[in-house]
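Example 3.2
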Amino acid sequence: MALRASRDRSMLRTIIEKECRLTVMMFKFTVGSLLLVVLMASSALVLTEHWKKRVDNYSAHCEEFGQELKRAKRYRDVILRFQRRPQLLSLLNSGFAKSSNWTIELHGKYDVPRIRGGAIDNAYLRTFIPADYSRLVIIVMSLLALVLSYDAINGDRSQGTLQLSLVNSVSRATILMGKYLGILLSVMLPFTAATLIWLIILLLRVNRPMEVEMGVRIGIAFILSLLYVSVFIWLGLFTSILIARPGTSLTVALLIWTLAIVLYPTSVAKVIELRSNRNWGWELRFRTTTDYPDERTRDRVEAVHWESLQRAAARYHFAQWLLRLTPQAPYDYATAALARTDVHAYLTWLSAAHLTDEFLRRWQNEKIRAYPDREIVATNLAEPLDLTGLPTLVEPNEALLATLRRIAWDGMLLILYNVILWLIAYFTFTRSDVRP
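Structure, written as tokens:
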């Protein structure tokens, strides 16, 4: 038994080395690797420039909002405006930030909070934003994995080498695992190089040191990327076992890829889409004879808006679970959570804004009681408002441990997809004919 196990390990090493050597020498591997490196480098160059412009716009907006606050003459005119600070890891996965560059307005006791669309509010312009790291992995890396694995079994079968290996007492499980590991290691070479180039460009262009937590988040995203790519290696191996002709197996694999990556997510898009011009149900207009609603009316309207927001979020999370039937969704959601650009991050930000609005109402009541004349003859007063104690929005940042707890299910889903496809490929291989 020990001798057989030792021989199987030796054969596994031999198959892995052979598969790596053959894969690296292929023309399609060279073309795919160069394409991946070029796309990663160009994406990092363009997205870092885009991120720096967003940071400049954020600073300009903060300055503009501060000047507007100083020009206010009455406490009822005090409006707090906030934007979410651009996340550097949005280059990893732009997530919800790609379509929701919002400004939130807090009116305190005199109006409900409102959300205004930002600079990327045009859906047509959003299509020209370069693909981020996760999008390149989802599309380019999955296609590269399929192209390298679709003929791994049926190619050897047609040449007769597969039958010869089985005659020499090499188990089918050893052959299948050797093929898988050889292709995975081959894919890791250009992917690791492209990731390092992407990271170096990012750090040089933004001119800031990489924090430990940021490095850990990128490292976890890299591991998740390998799990995602591994799914498509198993898919390519399965079609290679199932179909005798390599060309036909590639066609079937690409059809499955199109269904999982393009068609199925598009069919669920109407459920998942939350357009920014709907303002998540916060912007319901109403008129009163005094231009300002009484607090009781304001509270009722805000309650309706907040309930609308929660219902929209519930529909979105339900759509997320529908999309998790494909391997793309758990990878996309996990990397967005690591980048702090997922829906959960925005809901947390809106919840913090809701709490800040409550503090603003209390502050306004205190100031109006202290300076009642300012609300009547505001235009005759040259002195600025007393802004002492004015609340501000403290943007919450989720800790790494909390993020890991949230993405644990998505990571386990990717592992589950790998295990399921491995079992399907193995049982199909044990019952397949290996004759040329």
